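My main concern about presentation is that the manuscript never shows what a single data entry looks like. For the editor and my fellow referees, an illustration may be useful. For illustration, here is how one protein appears when written out as sequence plus structure tokens:

***
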Amino acid sequence: MPRKRNFGYLLLTLLVISGLAGTPTDNSLSKKERKYAADLMKETKSDVIKAVKGLSEPQLNFKTAPDKWSIKECVYHIAISEKNLWGILETTMKGAANPEKRSEIKMTDEQLVKMMEDRSFKVKTSEPLEPKNTSYKSFDEALDDFKTNRANHIKYLKATTEDLRNHVVHMSFGWLDCYQLCLMIASHSNRHTQQINELKADSVYPK
């Protein structure tokens, strides 16, 4: 019995040393990186929820023009983008690390967030991310989906030991590492929260 117990202690020690017990490795995020991304995710989640709290159906469906999005459609887009962009991250992380592509990354973390949150920077969304092409049947369904997914993404960022920095992916506007993709997801919702607040500030927005 003592021999088995000693073997168990030895095995646990080896697992901890090798990082197989879930402890951060050299390629894990730093505490600063982890906190920055998780905080940005939390703050932008709260901003979405605050911006749409207590809105009536006429307010949710208000548009400044027939070809513009309503607040409800903005939330549909935020929710489906959260899901689909995270799917890109998961697919990329399942593949081999490609640190040789890091030289293709042209933006710092801060520049990426600033660009995403700048409403003067215009990007045509892809067809699957158009509100009309989502499967959501109601505003509540879309908002709940966003809340659930964002909460899971925050948990992931707080605990992951995966090598996000050395998995690099090509997006429509350039190359990002998967940590930056997390920042993009967070700042993307901020971008459309601004859009929601612009609608609420319109002179003919329903009161």
